Amino acid sequence: MTTVVGFSTIIPFVAFFILFIILGFYGKYWRRSNLNDIYEWSLAGRRLGTTLVFFLLGADIYTSFAFVALPSGVFAKGSIYFLVYAPLTFAIALIIMPGLLSLSKEKGYITSSDFIKDRFGSTTLLF
Description:
Elements: H1 7-30, H2 38-43, H3 50-77, H4 79-107, H5 112-120
């Protein structure tokens, strides 16, 4: 079976490709920052805003969960995994994460290992 790619496919691809190249160069020179600083490199200087971070994390978590964890969990444990475990996990996260967010802002944590290192005094997580 041969697939023919027409202009209706190529034109939007090239247009979006050029748009993202321009946005990438614009972003590079828009706000100069020191990428040697861990806050700038990993958290965009903490300037992304709550709404954008919410959607970025939601897209990341739900796609990895939907394509990796959920099918393997259903295969291993059956539909009980999908019907009970997944909603329960998200409900617990909705309860715990706001407190962890405020603590992270207060103490300047960047990763979860920063929290564990500070909370439990783990020297293993220093590297």
